[in-house]
Amino acid sequence: MRFLRLFGPALMPALMGAALLSGCGLKPMYAGGGGGAVAQGLKGVQVAAIEGRAGWLVRNAIVDQLGADKGGTAPRYRLDIRLDDKLEGFALLSDDTIGRERRTLRARYQLVDLSSNETVLDATAGSDAGIDVVSSDYATIAGEQTALENMSKDVATRIVTAVALRLRGDTKQ
Questions:
Q1: Maximum separation of any 2 CA atoms in the chain, in Å
Q2: Which of 103, 102, 101, 67 is nearest to 83 (CA)?
Q3: CATH for 34-171?
């Protein structure tokens, strides 16, 4: 009884929130784990080759997240991706040198159903980063490369999430 007097007011909003969420139809995207419909659908996505270092990084991150390399599932979809990787200098200093760079990575991707050759998802994803330009060229180049690696993972995660949401929509039909 004392427990309810002490913690009752604090527990009431949590209990009400839980009751409201139970009726909203909220379902986990990966319900059923690796054997669920979305996970199996993701394993059936074949990722086409992408040009350049950024393409290699993005493709590897997507393949890792999809689980497509774990075998057993014939490809049902093909994911075509075009990247635009830009590095721009700005923040001009008094000695006419660049003090900061901005790196942007944009992806236009299409999910194509291999049985009908129909595009079922056509979208874009992107990420950007600011890089300090320092007196050491090595440090600046290392910063640019690290930014590209981080942005590639970010873009890959955005693409896989969009594909999973689309496949979850397909499983409801």
A1: 73
A2: 103
A3: 3.30.160.150
Cα–Cα–Cα angle for 44, 171, 46, rounded to 5 degrees: 15
Sign of the torsion formed by the C-alpha atoms of 55, 61, 66 and 68: positive
The pTM for the full model equals: 0.77
**Which residue in 169, 172, 167, 173 sits closest to 67, CA to CA?**
167
Determine contact, residues 89/71, Cβ cutoff 8 Å. Answer: no
Q: Supply the Cα-derived Rg of the chain in whole angstroms.
A: 23
Locate the domains of the chain by residue range.
Answer: 34-171
Q: What is the pLDDT of residues 110-120, one digit of tens each?
A: 999 999 999 99
In angstroms, the Cα distances linking 43 to 83, 92, 106, 111, 117 are 23, 47, 24, 13, 18
